[in-house]
Design goal:
This protein is α+β, with helices and mostly antiparallel strands and 135 residues long. It has helices at residues 26-39, 44-62, 102-110; strands at 13-20, 70-77, 81-89, 113-119, 122-130.
């Protein structure tokens, strides 16, 4: 795990968090998301949008996670962007919601870009948000 300091992020900083795949732990990920976005000096509305997007992505993954799974979250911090990748082991034969679904519309509206992969019994949703610069 990367220790966060008060220094500007010039190279990628990476933070890994693993929590039980249970809705009760999503607050930890929302708080970490907000803290890292604030570190990048995102505007308050951008921080809130990203918190909502992370929550929605996690909810999508929790619906297809195996029993007693862990939700792995990787935050990659660059000078002007935050990438959040959330991964869970999945139940065999499950699929993520279609990109035309309401959940995906939410993710793409709240982030710069969103993508998903599902392979080898694992599903990952990646969210990229760039700072608008209007802070």
């Amino acid at each position: 795990m990367t220790q966060l300091t008060g220094q500007p992020a010039t190279d990628d900083d990476v933070v890994h968090l693993t929590v039980p795949a249970d809705g009760g732990y999503l607050g930890v990920l929302r708080t970490a998301t907000a803290g890292l976005a604030a570190r990048l000096q995102f505007a308050l509305d951008e921080i809130e949008d990203l918190r909502i997007a992370v929550d929605e992505a996690c909810a999508m993954l929790l619906a297809i996670a195996t029993r007693d799974a862990e939700l792995e979250c990787r935050f990659s911090v660059t000078e002007d962007a935050l990438t959040v990748e959330v991964t869970v082991p999945t139940v065999r034969g499950t699929t993520l919601p279609a990109e035309s679904s309401f959940a995906w519309k939410v993710l793409t509206a709240l982030t710069t870009s969103a993508s998903a992969t599902a392979a080898d019994g694992r599903a990952t949703i990646s969210l990229l948000t760039r700072r608008s610069g209007g802070y």
